[in-house]
Design a protein that fits this description.
Elements (H helix, E strand, L loop, with lengths): L2 H12 L5 H10 L10 E3 L9 H11 L7 E6 L2 H16 L1 H4 L5 E3 L10 H4 L5 E6 H8 L11 H9 L2 E6 L5 H16 L6 E7 L9 E2 L2 H5 L1 H7 L4 E7 L5 H10 L7 E5 L3 H13 L3 E5 L5 H10 L1 H4 L14 E5 L13 E5 L3 H8 L12 E7 L6 H15 L6 H5 L3 H6 L12 H7 L15 H5 L8 E6 L2 H4 L4 H4 L2 H7 L8 E4 H14 L4 E5 L5 E5 H4 L12 E4 L6 E2 L2 E2 L24 E5 L8 H4 L1 E8 L10 E7 L11 E4 L1 E2 H19 L4 H13 L7 H6 L9 E6 L17 H9 L3 H4 L3 H12 L21 H22 L1 H20 L8
Parallel strand pairs: 1-6, 1-7, 2-4, 2-5, 3-4, 5-6, 8-13, 9-11, 9-12, 10-11, 12-13, 14-18, 24-26
Antiparallel strand pairs: 14-15, 16-17, 16-18, 19-20, 21-23, 22-23, 25-26
């Protein structure tokens, strides 16, 4: 593609003409040489770094052999993910006009939140936006909020055929180091999929010469306006640290009659709350942005808040007139596309201050922008305070000029010396990668530590964090019911989603939990550790002062009746909280939910059985009358949004041959697109699809899905296509149909014609297509109700050996990727079965 055609496509996708650096990056992408994707890009804030997504898509359209099929965009704050989503939406809508492929989108927000579109069709280009925790945990086979069955799929599709763009990489050095380790390990193991990492940063830590602006950029009128944007610095001494909030509030109130948008940054949430209180008492228009907001309420800021709209370049709602204030912690620092007229802040490290400066007069449209910095007069002797003192000295060198160009002109080594301390980066090893990949082993495994320290590094200066959510089942399913309805299984069916969660320091969370415990000491809570283990405890136990660390780095799920939420923030005095688990929508208008839960007798949405499939039915005692019939609580999910593996249920009951044909069709489509250069792998995937469900042809399995005519084999329960009656799927046995399929496949003539290597792969793909077999089937599941025990034992023993053999051959992410092709074909066929005449 010529420069002219690139510029035309770029304009169509982004509604703006490209800057010289954007054209140069495209040219670099399509060069016919190794290293066409730069490892580092150093681009100042305000110059459209997220346009890398559009540039990748155009390069993929013109040179598909040089570009990975999926782009993963990683940020270290959820607020940025939200705004990156908006940019990706714009690009997706203009795909036809720009003559580029349509893309699947998955993010943490809105109708794209944590969806399956990116993994339903691995042959389709996709953009996945997520945080360090979200993407990093999935890369390490440990996805937060992902059941054990889904972890290999996420690892495979995020670790192969991917360009991973790490935005503001200098803020997450541990994660950047981990990405490089994964890339190196894949190279060592000669994995066939491309996994390439490119860091983006406006304030690089200086490791090697990055791709950056050229003289042509600096001469470009818009670029020049933005990098020289006037930002006048003023410094104010803070003599009493206890009065920081008061002094910052006073400086902010100096703008109260200006009619401007005023941004305030402080490091502590407590100071945010104090400043907000001061400004509200002065009858000002105030909004807060902290990492402690629940996801649902944080999403609403960008969608509907009139104050927040004043700081957005293209708000979705009418903005608030007059003077407005946005008070933030670091949640508003990184990559957020907001721009204020003036800034008031406390002193932070240089990397943080540079981010803050980037949120004021971002586009260089004002000449009178003012930045007021409140700083200590004395600094302690610890590492962080030394870096704060260095930052102050550097900023004072600027002589009042806080423009991006002035910041970039400071001595690079001095800038790095004033950055936040580098966390302790834990080294990874092949043994650790092996241990994390053993996803079928759900219990604690010696030598398999939690992945969080490898994603974030060890940061002793930062407090531990606790997450909170609210679910109705916490106080409804108690006592003996917990044996029947295990919390871990319930969260597999209805996983916690980002919009349900808030995060805060564990100390602050403990304070609020202690207040709740005074009112509701006997209320239950679910305490979830980083590996997904759940302990049911009372609020009284959680409030034990001798065990305050019990909630460190944990997730606490409370009952809504316990209270604790006020305007999206944790509040121990609040008697109200809402279970918002089903406020997860298909569309922007929020007219259609992705999942819902209904009590018997409740009004059902139109066409319930056609739109949703039943994933859980719970019988609970009638709280109003213990002798009355139990109440039935039914949980539904849309097939295309399901997190589970859909092994038994669908909207409509589906015949075995119908489902198998659909899976073969999908697998062939994927193989044609992704494995055409590897005929042996192509053939293995299609044959695995043909025989993956042989083990469902067992009477016990058919009875389990509620099939009234077991002489006719079915693959899914659901609404009977003839009678209209809904079959009830029940766990009548621990039999795994995949194991039965492995026994029966030995008799298939088509299987017998394969090479030994192909047989190995076919058997492995079948064994793991619902998440087991990595590396084993649990002992209690090693049987077949209609085959000999010796046959089952033989299959089980071969499974672990085969897994180890194939992982050595294809690599950890390479093998997971091949597995995921069959799993995606099975899932897509279940979510959207083809039409078939009722017989």
């Amino acid at each position: 593609m010529s420069d002219t055609r690139f510029k035309t496509a770029f304009q169509a996708l982004t509604n703006t003409a490209p800057f010289p650096w954007q054209t140069a990056l495209y040219q670099r992408f399509v060069e016919d040489r190794p290293g066409n994707i730069p490892r580092s890009c150093n681009i100042p804030t305000g110059l459209g770094k997220t346009s890398v997504i559009a540039i990748w898509l155009i390069a993929l359209a013109t040179h598909p052999e040089k570009m990975p099929r999926r782009l993963v965009y990683v940020v270290n704050r959820r607020t940025v993910v939200d705004q990156t989503t908006t940019e990706v939406e714009k690009i997706a809508k203009q795909a036809d006009a720009a003559a580029v492929p349509k893309i699947a989108i998955s993010t943490l927000r809105g109708q794209f939140a944590d969806n399956r579109s990116w993994s339903a069709d691995p042959s389709k280009p996709a953009v996945i936006c997520g945080t360090v925790d979200m993407i990093g945990s999935r890369l390490l086979f440990s996805g937060y909020g992902v059941g054990f069955k889904g972890k290999p799929l996420h690892a495979g599709f995020l670790g192969q055929d991917v360009l991973l763009v790490h935005d503001e990489a200098h803020l997450e050095p541990a994660f950047q180091s981990l990405l490089q380790s994964i890339e190196d390990e894949q190279t060592r193991c000669k994995e066939f999929g491309r996994f390439q990492v490119m860091e983006l940063s406006a304030t690089s830590r200086g490791q090697g010469k990055p791709f950056g602006l050229s003289d042509a950029d600096r001469e470009h009128p818009i670029v020049a306006q933005r990098i020289t944007a006037p930002k006048h610095l003023r410094f104010f001494e803070l003599k009493d640290q206890r009065k920081l909030a008061d002094q910052v509030a006073d400086l902010a109130l100096a703008h109260q009659d200006s009619g401007r948008a005023i941004l305030v940054f402080v490091q502590r949430v407590d100071d945010v709350e104090k400043i907000a209180g001061c400004l509200r008492r002065a009858d000002q228009n105030v909004q807060q942005l902290t990492g402690t907001l629940r996801g649902l309420e944080r999403d609403a800021l960008a969608e509907s808040d009139q104050i927040f709209a004043r700081f957005l370049p293209k708000p979705k709602v009418e903005h608030k007139p007059g003077t407005v204030y946005l008070i933030c912690t670091s949640a508003g620092e990184v990559g957020v596309n907001i721009s204020a007229d003036h800034l008031v802040c406390d002193l932070s490290t240089f990397d943080s201050m540079a981010q803050r400066f980037g949120r004021v007069n971002r586009f260089g449209e004002r000449r009178d922008t003012q930045i007021d910095i409140v700083h200590p007069t004395e600094f302690e002797d610890d590492d962080r305070c030394v870096r704060l003192e260095r930052t102050l000295a550097l900023l004072q060198e600027l002589r009042g000029d806080g423009s991006p160009q002035a910041l970039a002109g400071l001595d690079p080594d001095a800038r790095i010396a004033a950055f936040a301390p580098t966390p302790t980066i834990l080294p990874t090893t092949d043994i650790l990668f092996d241990a994390w990949a053993l996803t079928t082993i759900r219990e604690k495994l010696p030598g398999r530590p939690p992945v969080a320290p490898y994603l974030q590094g060890i940061r002793p200066w930062e407090p531990p964090i606790t997450q909170i959510a609210w679910r109705d089942e916490v106080n409804r399913i108690t006592g003996d019911l917990l044996v029947v309805y295990k919390p871990k299984d319930l969260l597999e069916d209805f996983p916690l989603k980002p919009h349900e969660l808030l995060r805060d320091s564990s100390n602050r969370v403990f304070k609020h939990l202690a207040q709740l415990a005074e009112l509701h000491p006997g209320d239950f809570a679910w305490l979830i550790d980083q590996e997904g283990k759940i302990e049911v405890v009372t609020l009284e136990l959680l409030a034990d002062k001798n065990r305050k660390d019990r909630i460190d780095d944990m997730t606490v799920v409370l009952a809504p009746s316990s209270g604790g939420l006020d305007k999206g923030l944790l509040n121990g005095h609040s008697t109200f909280a809402e279970d918002v688990s089903d406020k997860w929508y298909v569309d922007v208008a929020k007219s259609e939910k992705r999942r819902l839960r209904l009590w018997d007798g409740a009004e059902e949405p139109a066409n319930l059985s056609e739109k949703y499939r039943l994933v859980r039915e719970i019988e609970l005692p009638n709280q109003d009358d213990e002798e009355a019939e139990p109440r039935i609580w039914r949980w539904y999910v849309r097939p295309k949004s399901a997190d589970d593996d859909a092994s038994k249920t669908a909207s409509l009951a589906i015949a075995w041959h119908h489902h198998t044909n659909d899976v073969v069709s999908r697998a062939t489509q994927f193989a044609d697109a992704l494995l055409k250069g590897s005929p042996d792998l192509h053939q293995a995937l299609v044959i695995a699809a043909r025989f993956h469900d042989l083990g469902k042809m067992r009477l016990a399995w058919q009875h389990g899905i509620g099939n009234p005519q077991p002489s006719v084999w079915y693959a899914k329960s659901g609404k009977d296509p003839k009678s209209g009656r809904i079959w009830k799927s029940r766990e009548l046995t621990t039999y795994r149909h995949e194991l039965g399929s492995l026994i029966d496949i030995e008799k298939q003539l088509e299987f017998k014609t394969l090479t030994e290597d192909q047989k190995d792969l076919v058997c492995h793909l079948i064994a793991v297509h619902h998440g087991y077999g990595r590396p084993h089937f649990p002992v209690e599941r090693v049987f077949d109700p209609e085959r000999s025990q010796s046959a089952a034992d033989d299959v089980a023993s071969k499974t672990s050996q085969r897994y180890a053999r194939l992982q050595r051959k294809y690599g950890r992410w390479g093998l997971a990727y091949l597995e995921s092709l069959l799993r995606a074909a099975d899932w897509a066929a279940s979510a959207e079965p083809s039409k078939e005449e009722i017989r």
